[in-house]
Write a structure and sequence with these properties.
Elements: H1 12-15, E1 22-24, E2 59-65, E3 68-75, E4 80-84, H2 95-103, E5 107-111, H3 130-143, E6 149-154, H4 156-167, E7 172-178, H5 200-208, E8 213-214, H6 215-220, H7 224-231, H8 233-243, H9 264-275, E9 276-277, H10 300-313, H11 316-323, H12 325-331, E10 344-349, H13 353-357, H14 359-363, H15 365-368, E11 376-378, H16 385-388, H17 390-402
Parallel strand pairs: 1-11, 4-5, 4-6, 6-7, 7-10, 10-11
Antiparallel strand pairs: 2-3, 3-5, 8-9
Helix pairs in contact: 2-17, 3-4, 8-10
């Protein structure tokens, strides 16, 4: 099942000894319209205690960058911090960070990435290659009248942020990656391929083994994932947000397992069972059933916003990112062996599967990033760190920025 490994991660990273990172526990934007009701009503009853949609400091802008239209939400004044989201997300995923950064004296700008929200959605798959995504970010910086920025990314946004700082250190003076460690040419920092030494699809198929698909390969199967996600965006998005979070229950037998000490071979075997799908099985088939009440970090307003966005725009553009992994690997060949020169920080979650599979890349980060700060793993946090642990992530960001 897809969530076998997700629910067993627990806080093992905060109990371990040895690996080099520290753990910690501690015009107004318009409101979207009504969304699909195909979800458990009693699980959707919570209302928001923090409304990004009502914060008058959040100003939306439409920028011309790299030949496309980019929707941005901005707050505050000061040094520029550019925020890049992942899948399946939005500028809205950074709402807690926008306010904290603005309060601390920064000009924080969260964008809808290419293919998402109110940003342009090119039709061609190759228009979602990493060089175009980096060029979008460069274009946004210049469109804002700035010459440099600190870039922060989560999930796919991390891969874009790392690559932007790696290939354009003249524009991006520092970088923070959340959930996904720096993966070099390979982008995803997979076990046995931490910095893209091998073609991503080759490693993915090796992990999956016969008769299974690595979930990212499932995403690129013609029409398959698109069809599943479009069939019920509300149910799929809600299931993904819950299943990949630390709120999903942990079986008691997992408490004694230190997943951080697994070899790459053993980790690949666990990933084979956790995130590789047999024929005919969809992503939702392995998601953890939603409880009657939403977790504290997820509200009705949050769900409504995400669902409205994807019901309006679809999933095709976001899924095109996954189609370009091998192409990106080829395009980044000239940078192989080049260090990531700017100050850099990785922040992961103690129950985030991407943090777990990127363990080797995280531990070896100082080898390829001479100005790398000590990585931070936030205990009892899953994949959605900006939502699940906003105070802890904000603290890490602000301490990093203050040290530049």
């Amino acid at each position: 099942m897809v969530t076998v490994l997700l629910v067993v991660l627990g806080s093992a990273s905060s109990r371990r000894a040895g690996p080099p990172y520290r753990s910690t526990s501690t015009s107004p934007v318009p409101v979207p319209g009504a969304t699909s009701g195909a979800r458990k009503e009693n699980a959707m009853s919570k209302t928001s205690t923090f409304s990004a949609l009502d914060d008058e400091r959040f100003k939306q802008r439409t920028l011309s960058a790299n030949g496309i239209r980019v929707h941005a939400v901005e707050a505050g004044q000061g040094p520029l911090v550019l925020l890049a989201h992942g899948f399946p997300e939005s500028w809205y995923s950074w709402r807690h960070q926008l306010r904290a950064l603005a309060d601390a004296g920064y000009r924080a700008v969260a964008i809808d990435m290419r293919g998402y929200g109110r940003t342009s959605k090119p039709a061609a798959v190759h228009d979602y290659r990493i060089t175009e995504l980096v060029a979008d970010c460069v274009g946004v910086v210049h469109a804002l009248g700035e010459s440099q920025a600190v870039i922060v990314g989560h999930d796919w946004g991390s891969a874009v942020a790392w690559t932007a700082a790696w290939t354009r250190p003249d524009v991006f003076r520092a970088v923070v990656g959340v959930s996904v460690p720096f993966g070099g040419r390979g982008q995803m920092a997979l076990p046995g391929n931490p910095f893209g030494e091998r073609r991503p699809s080759e490693v993915e198929r090796e992990i999956a083994g016969p008769g299974r698909l690595w979930y990212q390969e499932y995403f690129t199967s013609p029409g398959v994932a698109d069809r599943e996600f479009h069939s019920d965006p509300a149910a799929w998005l809600t299931g993904a947000l819950y299943s990949f979070s630390a709120s999903a229950p942990q079986p008691p037998e997992a408490a004694a397992v230190d997943f951080t000490q697994l070899s790459d071979q053993a980790l690949a075997a666990m990933l084979r069972e956790a995130v590789c799908l047999p024929p005919g099985v969809g992503m939702r088939d392995g998601m953890t059933p939603m409880p009657d009440d939403l977790p504290d970090w997820l509200t009705q307003e949050d769900i409504d916003f995400y669902v409205a966005e994807f019901e309006r725009t679809g999933f095709t553009g976001p899924l095109n990112y996954y189609h370009c992994l091998d192409l990106n690997w080829e395009l980044l060949a000239p940078y192989e062996g080049r260090p990531l020169e700017v100050p850099a920080l990785f922040v992961g979650g103690g129950r985030d599967i991407a943090t777990l599979w990127g363990r080797t890349a995280m531990q070896r980060f100082p080898e390829v990033a001479p100005q790398a700060r000590e990585p931070i793993v936030i205990a009892d946090a899953g994949h959605w760190l900006p939502d699940e642990k906003p105070q802890e992530l904000n603290k890490a960001l602000l301490e990093f920025l203050a040290g530049l």
